[in-house]
Amino acid sequence: MVRRALLIGAQTYDLTGVAEDVNVMERLLADRGFTDLRVCREAAETGYDGMKDAFRRLVAETGKGDAVVVYYAGHGSLLPLPPALRELHPGRPAHLQYLVPSDHEAGTATDFRGYLAEELTAVLRSLTAITPNVTCVLDCCHSGGMVRAPGSRRIRSVRSQVPVEAGVERSVGLATAPRLPDPDVVRLVACQRLGVAYEDERQGLFTAALARTLEDFRAQPVPWSVLIARIRDRVRQSETLQHPDAGGPSGRLPFSTDVPAQPERLPLRVHGDALRMVGGALFGLERLDRVRLVLPADGTRPGTEAEARVTAVDAADALLDPPPGVPVAPLPPGSYALPVLVHTRHRVRIEVGGPLADALRGRLASSPRLTEADDGARSLVRIRRGQLEVADSAGWLHRRAEETPGPAEVPAAARRVVGLLETIARGERLRGLTDPGPEGFPSGDLRARLEVETRPGSHDFREFRKGDGLRVGDRYRVFAAGRARTQPYVWLLGVGLSGRTSLVTHDQPSGIPMERADGQADEFVWRSGPVEIWWPEDVPAEGARPESVLLLVGDRELDLSPLAGAARHRRSEPAALSALLDAVCEGVRDSRPSDTAAALRYRVFDWHATVEPPPQPPSKQ
């Protein structure tokens, strides 16, 4: 197994910090055991042909089980297509998104010198076909304009005047190739779609925060989903509204496929004399639930952990009073809360005995969302015909049975069983997410619908009606529209027939901005691409299973990646995620966001159906 990385630094136009970005990443990765480090700094290496050749060689030389990092620092561009090209290619994205090579300005109407997001996505899919351990880090942005930040900072975006015809033709030619980010790639991006990434005279703010955060947690097994919160806090201290994000399987440990058993982490903000757990209500927290506060060490102040109770719920957030002796002003970067005990707990009946029962009860006692119960149990753990089973109240197995564990295997088996039960409990919680109604979101006519393809591959969709069923292989999409006084954001969530939760729009966990309708200043629309229903291999093909789709619409960004389960359970192609570099920041201001920001206001639209198991092949006689 080789740990290899491709680092590209295209220091074009007025950028000055790209070279240092690449140097920092080269040192950081070398210090973590990366022995095959390919660095592209020179103009010939960072031109379009040089970048294309570097990616080709990376794919050709990557072997099974390798750890791979792709890093890019430089300009990114998001160009609107001229009306004539949009009419010529209906159904194509309205913008051309690409990385900016060093020979960008040499492009012509027949030779586009930009590395398209579709091209990068195809490279990443080629890599994950070889090895699952792929991380992509992008320190650039896609703003269509060029503005200036306070002081000496500059934005890593560029308004291009080069012809785009050849770029559009290349994009159309890639239509049969995968256009969307591979859900198995960890993606770390410096900002969001239409957003900006800053640098100072030395280097990019995102790369600096990334390197410092990785050093802070060098000796601790902390996943990307936790690290990105600290990276955001550090970037935010620069007094810019740059919003880094992490997509894909961000529950992994850095540069690894290992996923630690991490409970849900909710970011903390100061709220007057109290604390605000951002998004706590969406995670099922209510008044009197207990949480554990984790405040990292910061400067001269040591790290602190303490338990507290939820005192109130404000829209999507949960409020609590800090326990005595816990300083919270200001909060250290990366502070978060962990649920300890919640009001709604999944009831489990244990029908096994001996050491396995003792191990299960010990783990249940420490789970915030599970409790043992004989009456009204939603799940049961039992042994039948020498196999360990976890079933629902109707007797259908949640997963395929496994052999009864021997004495040495009991701890691991108990960990797997309780982990599965917590997955089911998370799915139930998400299915029960309620809509606060029109007063929950500042919009007068917000509406949404689910559409299902009439027959496979037809691209003809009909509206899903309450009571309709779904079949394996069906594809659905979601449409939303409405008027709003502020920029609305959407998240597409799902609870699959396996019970796993999924953030379908996983590439933009902080939310996708709805687009303004043509000619309407306050009218917004959004449509996902088709999402396929499939039957996971680890779920027995017996009995109809529930499938739920939820659309969350909010009035600001919020990282909902903790809502997603660790396992992939569906294949999705949201059209708004037409490129790896998509994200959600609407603009830049020259002030720092306040820790006392108002709670997220939101609406929830949900659709529930049952899915029949696929027909089983005839058994061989």
Secondary-structure blueprint:
Layout: E1 3-10, H1 18-30, E2 36-40, H2 43-46, H3 48-61, E3 67-74, E4 76-80, H4 83-88, E5 95-99, E6 115-116, H5 117-128, E7 133-139, E8 154-155, H6 165-173, E9 185-189, E10 198-199, H7 205-216, H8 224-236, E11 245-247, E12 266-271, E13 274-277, E14 290-295, E15 304-314, E16 317-320, E17 336-341, E18 346-350, H9 354-365, E19 370-372, E20 379-384, E21 387-392, E22 402-403, H10 410-431, E23 447-453, E24 461-463, E25 475-483, E26 489-495, E27 501-503, E28 512-513, E29 515-516, E30 523-527, E31 531-532, E32 545-554, E33 571-572, E34 602-611
Parallel strand pairs: 1-2, 1-3, 3-7, 7-9, 18-19, 18-20
Antiparallel strand pairs: 4-5, 5-6, 8-10, 9-11, 12-13, 12-17, 13-16, 14-15, 14-17, 15-16, 20-21, 21-22, 23-24, 23-25, 25-30, 25-31, 26-27, 26-28, 26-32, 29-30, 31-33, 32-34
Looking at this protein, list some descriptive labels.
621 residues; Metacaspase; single chain; globular; 4 domains; Caspase-like_dom_sf; Rossmann fold; alpha+beta; 10 helices; seven-stranded antiparallel β-sheet; Thrombin, subunit H; Pept_C14_caspase; Caspase family protein
